[in-house]
Amino acid sequence: MKTTGRVNGIISNIVIVKTDGAVGQNEICHVYCGTTRMMAEVIKVIGDEAYVQVFDSTRALKIGDRVEFEGHMLEATLAPGLLSRNYDGLQNDLEKMDGLFIARGSITDPIDFEKKWEYKPLAKVGDKVTAGAWLGEVQEQWVAHKIMVPFIMQGSYTVKSLAAEGSYKVTDTIATLQDTDGNEYPVTMVQKWPVKQAIRCFDEKPRPSRVMETGVRAIDTFNPLAEGGTGFIPGPFGAGKTVLQHAISKQAEADVIIIVACGERANEVVEIFAEFPELVDPHTGHKLMERTIIICNTSNMPVAAREASVYTGMTIGEYYRSMGLKVLVMADSTSRWAQALREMSNRLEELPGQDAFPMDLSAIISNFYARAGLVKLHNGHTGSVTFLGTVSPAGGNLKEPVTESTKKAARCFYALSQGRADSKRYPAIDPLESYSKYLEYPEVREYLDEHIEKNWVDAVYEGKTIVQRGKEANDQINILGDDGVPTEYHERFWKSELIDFVILQQDAFDAIDANCPTERQKMMYNMVLDICRKQFDFADFEECSQYFKSLINLFRQMNYSEWKSEQFDDYRRQIEKFVNDKSAK
Ligand code: ADP
Ligand code: MG
After folding, report:
1. Which of 121, 163, 236, 486 qualifies as a FRET site for 425, CA 20 to 30 Å off?
2. Residues 140-155, mean pLDDT to the nearest whole number
3. Helix axes 456-480, 518-533, angle to 10 degrees
């Protein structure tokens, strides 16, 4: 018997329900407003009163309207057929709906329950299995989608029977498992998981040790993101957060990419829908959309549904990670999520924390980021969820609570600066403020030693120092004037500009420059660093600035040339000659 209740109070989309039985925190319920059935989530329970937040508009809802509790939390449906889909935060398929504007109370299936999949067993009858074990697989796009023992099945089981290789619907029974008491459980290809709870079926979570290529030089070369790592991009409006995330979602070296667009402008979201189906994954040559899942809540969707979207995205990420895949989850912007939390907490009249955010904002953000990570599965395979979120601090103030809390949780910090954006130095990642803690990990150092070249991390820090010293020199020049400082200061300044213009700046809209693979980054960086290590003797600051301007120009032409093309080699030779001629003097 389901617990039911009656509406007893309405505060915007928070509804107070008088219940006739037990309800649990975060339990899902449905509120009936006339013939419309709206989904809601319990966010507070006191005695027989439940406070539920409705994922929809509560317009026309009345005292006395009926509520039915479902006995479970907000769940994601996990099965073959998730890839390429566009969902809202509650996993409604947006393509089956009226575009981005979902009719009130409407619900669609998250996957196709009729489609047949070519299934191949991986386990054998008699195998001992636990939650997450791979029973079989189906080919989903180009991903070998593992059919796993449902994550909710606690304890160990014996495989009693297995379906033979063949084509099945996701709801067909593909295995029967027996527990130690002899009870049998049928397993299908569909499982459900409460989104706000981390999926935990792995042996250990080792520290990340590999670097995830994003094709963005300011990240890969200067502040690399680790596979299974976390990072965030704070930046004022218009600084390039969305452009940067889109670039990464197109280029990153991942098997599955999940883009959570929460509460940003609707037109931007439409752009992803329009652009993605055409694009090709640079690593595999497959259509990009085949590895992508988009979860989108635009700002015109109800606040409550926005809060759910980041959790739904993360849960789907953890699901694919359990198959031994590399998953990248991105959320734009997590500030909208935090604002949803704030609105909710304010409506509940909870004691507010800083800037009226909930008191436990920091814990909520940390717990969320902690779900990312590299995992070692029970079967020895590894999988990873890398998480990258943007934060849009009001007025670009990096001291506000969401930025501060996220800074504690994420290991990479890509601060977009208004100044850089204003002077069109894109991506506007501030080279001095930003950092990657992974550069300090011995495992990462070792990985880079092996995969790029020996002592790569030292070279990265050397470049950072050059940029820092260039800024100091520039400050002196600004105060004392061009003639008031030794030419050497100008040289220092221009060396940092060389790094900035050639390595850090990158045109996200150029077909070639947008994506810079690791091998190319290594070559470019070494070329630039070699020049920075040279001592030039310029007659005066004018000769110095002229020299570097020409050099930067040649490098930029090279950046816009196809890797290893004749044109590229031509620029490389011109640069080498240019440098040798000068140093030979
Ligand atoms: P935000 O999401 O931070 O509000 P956007 O990502 O929408 O900002 O970027 C705003 C504008 O800045 C873009 O429309 C584009 O013109 C410019 N821009 C940002 N990043 C780049 C880049 N890497 N290359 C070229 N232009 C960029
Ligand atoms: Mg944006």
Report:
1. 486
2. 94
3. 50
Would the CB of 563 count as within 6 Å of ligand 1? Answer: no
Whole-number Å distance between alpha carbons of 340 and 355: 13
Residues in the chain: 585
Closest residue by Cα to atom 9, ligand 1, is 240
State CA 10 to chain mean position distance: 35
Q: What is the pLDDT of residue 266?
A: 65
Q: What is the pLDDT of residue 98?
A: 57
Whether 250 lines ligand 1, by a CB cut-off of 6 Å, is no
Ligand nearest to the CA of 237: 1
Q: Is 248 in the pocket of ligand 1 (CB under 6 A)?
A: no
Model confidence, pTM: 0.94
Q: Which fold has domain 115-189?
A: OB fold (Dihydrolipoamide Acetyltransferase, E2P) (2.40.50)
Atom of ligand 1 minimally distant from the CA of 506: 23
Where in the chain are the domains? 4-74, 115-189, 217-440, 456-581
User: Is the shortest distance between the CB of 210 and ligand 1 below 6 Å?
Assistant: no
Return the C-alpha torsion angle 24, 25, 31, 37, nearest 10: -90
Residue from 242, 243, 501, 559 whose mutation best tests the ligand 1 pocket (most atoms within 8 A of CB): 243
Q: What is the mean pLDDT of residues 273-300?
A: 82
Domain 4-74 in CATH 3.30.470.20? The answer is no
Q: Which residues does residue 506 pair with via DSSP β-bridges, in sequence order?
A: none
Q: ω into residue 282 within 30 of 0, thus cis? A: no
> Ligand 1 centre from 347 Cα, in Å?
35
Query: Model confidence over 159-183: pLDDT tens digits?
Result: 999 999 999 999 999 999 999 999 9
Identity (one letter) of the amino acid at 246? H
CATH class of 456-581: mainly alpha
- CATH superfamily for domain 217-440: P-loop containing nucleotide triphosphate hydrolases (3.40.50.300)
